[in-house]
Amino acid sequence: MQALAEHGGVQIVGIADPASACRDAARAIAPAATLCEHLGQLLELPLDGVVIATPSALHADHCLTALERGLAVFCQKPLGRNGAEARKVVDAARAADRLLGVDLSYRYTSAMSRIAPIVRAGGIGRVFAVDLVFHNAYGPEAAWFYDKRSSGGGCVIDLGVHLVDLALWLLDFPPVVAIDSHLFAQGHAVAPEEVEDFASVQLQLAGGVVVRLTCSWRISAGRDAVIEARVFGTEGGVALTNVNGSFYDFVAEHYTGTRTERLAEPPDAWGGRAAIAWAEQLARSPAFDAAADRFVDVARVLDRIYGGAQ
Question: Could you give the domains of the chain?
Answer without folding.
Answer: 2-104+273-289 (3.40.50.720), 106-269+300-309 (3.30.360.10)
